[in-house]
Design goal:
The chain is of the alpha/beta class. The protein has two domains: 206 residues, Alpha-Beta Barrel (TIM Barrel); 124 residues, Lyase, Ornithine Decarboxylase, Chain A, domain 1, CATH 2.40.37. Helices cover 26% and strands 24% of the residues. It is built from eleven helices and 18 strands. The strands form three sheets. Strands 1, 10, 13, 14, 15, 16, 17 and 18 form an eight-stranded mixed sheet that branches. The longest helix has 14 residues. The two termini are 24 Å apart. The protein binds pyridoxal-5'-phosphate. The site of pyridoxal-5'-phosphate has 11 residues, from loops.
Length: 359
């Protein structure tokens, strides 16, 4: 068997969910499990949080159906709402909470004949300018949806653009825009993603929406997951498949992009970009062998990458190589590769087997 595995610590996910809840006592939380639970496996994550989570949030109906099959009665929020009119029937069958962020969505909801009314979250575009209504349109739709036969709870939701940069002016503006609408009668309100849960108590409202923090990564560049009390969840481990000596001036890998400046001992590792390791990770991106950080060298290939073992003479064929995880935060690798933990975790591909444990 190919020596590459993503070990997933389900107890750490439960711990991290409890951290979110502890930040906002008395509030409820949708565990965000879109994109296959950020790459961790939606079935296992939902099962691990079954008795703990107040609800789950997903990006589309297909994801919602998967969660509903595992959890008959959890609240389940469709973050982008329905993509076409016919989806409202399915949303009602599955008992979903739906976001409504465009006029066609609202019109289709009002035209639908549903077996039961839906909890409906009007989405305010408070400044992200991706999805949602203006404040004036929220007021308008509030009046038209309140009491409609298709609507159970009428709720308000918005999303931060910069909550991961502490003290950003837009965050204050977005919060104010949200608060300005609370003279309207909403049954529930939701605003906080992980970053806001961790640092903006005034944004906690009724329902939190923790995503990345559940998976033990930080939304912040200047605050580590460890400092936030989060436990790492996924450890991606490979092996040293080959070791060779490379003389000064010899190159390693495609494009001969890295050349040895000293006599070097180079290891070949069983992980590549087809596994989700970022191809653009530059030489120097850290890998962990025998507890020591060592630099990636040369270009990442489809199935393999190379590491400079010169400073770890004890390294041997078959040694475990941690790409990220318990001892090497995914955020540190993401930073070196010019991306974020979210992307690395959610892009681990299907061919990497996931192994679950409750450490
Ligand atoms: C993905 C998502 C979240 C979770 O965000 P994190 O930064 O991962 O906590 C919350 N709300 C919405 C609308 C989202 O799309």
């Amino acid at each position: 068997m190919r020596p590459l595995v993503a070990s997933i610590d389900l107890a750490a996910i439960r711990h991290n969910y409890a951290v979110a809840k502890r930040c906002a006592p008395g509030r409820s939380a949708f565990a965000v499990v879109k994109a296959n639970a950020y790459g961790h496996g939606v079935r296992e994550v939902v099962t691990a949080l079954h008795d703990l989570a107040d609800g789950f949030a997903v990006a589309c109906l297909e994801e919602a159906a998967e969660v509903r099959a595992l959890h008959a009665d959890a609240r389940l929020l469709l973050l982008e709402g329905c993509f076409e009119a016919a989806e409202y029937q399915l949303a009602a069958q599955l008992g979903l909470d739906v976001v409504v962020h465009t006029e066609p969505q609202a019109v289709q909801l009002l035209a639908a004949s549903l077996r039961r009314p839906l909890n409906t979250w009007l989405k305010l575009d408070s400044g992200m300018h991706r999805l949602g209504f203006s404040a004036a349109a929220v007021r308008d739709w509030h009046a038209r949806l309140q009491g409609a036969e298709q609507v159970a709870e009428l709720n308000l939701l918005s999303h931060f653009a910069c909550a991961d940069e502490r003290g950003h002016a837009l965050t204050e503006q977005q919060l104010e825009g949200f608060l300005d609408l609370l003279d309207l009668d909403f049954a529930q309100r939701s605003l906080a993603n992980s970053a806001a849960i961790l640092t903006i108590p005034a944004a906690h409202m009724d329902w939190l929406r923790p995503g990345i923090m559940l998976y033990g990564a930080t939304p912040f560049s200047e605050l580590s997951a460890g400092e936030l009390g989060l436990q790492p969840v996924m450890t991606l481990s490979a092996q040293l498949l080959a070791i060779r000596q490379v003389a000064v001036g010899e190159s390693v890998g495609y494009g001969a992009s890295w050349t040895a400046a000293r006599a070097s001992r180079i290891g070949t590792v069983s992980c590549g970009y087809a596994d989700g390791y970022p191809r653009h990770a530059p030489s120097g991106t850290p890998l962990l062998i025998r507890g020591q950080r060592l630099p990636l060298v040369g270009r990442v290939s489809m199935d393999m990458l190379a590491v400079d073992l010169t400073d770890l003479p004890a390294a041997q064929l078959g040694d475990e190589v941690q790409l990220w995880g318990a001892q090497l935060p995914v955020d540190e690798v993401a930073h070196a590769a010019g991306t974020i933990g979210y992307e690395l975790l959610s892009k681990v591909t299907r061919r990497v087997p996931r192994r679950y444990h409750n450490a």
